[in-house]
Amino acid sequence: MSVLHFIDAHIHPYDLVGKAQRAFDPGLTAFLCASSHTMEELVFHRRLSGTLAPATMLCSFGIHPQEPDDTALEVLDRAIELGMVDAIGECGFDLYNPAFRASLDAQILVWNAQVERSLRHGLPLVIHSRKALPLIFESTARLSRLPSVIFHGWPGSPDEGIAFLKRGVNAYFSLGKGVLRGQKTVLHSARTLPVDRILTETDAPWMAGRGEAYSREIDIQKVSQCIADLRSVSLDTLCSRVEKNFKEAFFLAHPSRELL
Ligand SMILES: [Zn+2]
């Protein structure tokens, strides 16, 4: 029997199945966190997670900063109440282009509301940030009171990551296909962030590499191998460490989700 190795801390199975027009295939991935923005996606992910054993798939639900619609907060509250949500997000800020920047006020509103819910319910917070780390730093005091914070597609430098940790944020930094694109900052982070703080992800079907129409589940193998090479450790060593980090970040080892 094959051994499951890989950890995909941020993936969109609903979108991937829609794009690829085929069933979801986690391959040798042992742990995943599926990101949802609508109840339809969340229900799809919940059903899917029941079919993936022995792989474990968690479900996050959040209001994405590219569509900061505060009426979706009611859906989030209902999903939390129904026990369907393992983490809140992805949420955060996206200031990548003028169209996104125009909705900054709405982004701030839904960000604050989601940080507040993460605190109230003791749920990990999954962050999306593009060109917006200073805004996330402004929330450091509140983030340091959350059970954990997972930066998906960590966009910052190792020093910025360490600054969050030093300020008491229980932060994890998920690295994805940016490492395969050879982006300098991402490579530097992949090489030097503390080993007990890194996660791996595909963000599939998004974050396509050069020449790809979309990203696939199996890309987690290339991402993981690349990070193992950058850190000069074996793939096995990297994957077992990331598995431990994933369990700590999402409180799989301590289901009581005690606040720090
Ligand atoms: Zn995503």
Describe the structure.
With 260 residues, the protein is an alpha/beta fold. The chain has one domain: Metal-dependent hydrolases (TIM Barrel), CATH 3.20.20. The protein is 42% helix and 17% strand. The protein is built from twelve helices and eight strands. The protein has helices at residues 13-20, 39-49, 72-81, 98-101, 104-121, 133-138, 140-143, 158-166, 178-181, 184-192, 219-230, 235-249; strands spanning 6-11, 29-36, 56-61, 87-94, 125-130, 149-151, 171-175, 198-200. It has an eight-stranded parallel beta sheet with strand order 1-2-3-4-5-6-7-8. Strand 1, helix 1 (13-20) and strand 2 (29-36) form a beta-alpha-beta unit. The chain is globular, with a radius of gyration of 17 Å. Residues 10, 12, 35, 90, 152, 203, 206 line the site of zinc ion (ZN).
C-alpha Rg (nearest Å): 17 Å
Number of helices: 12
Name of the level-1 CATH class: Alpha Beta
Which word captures the global form? globular
Beta-strand content bin: 15-25%
Low-confidence stretches: 256-260
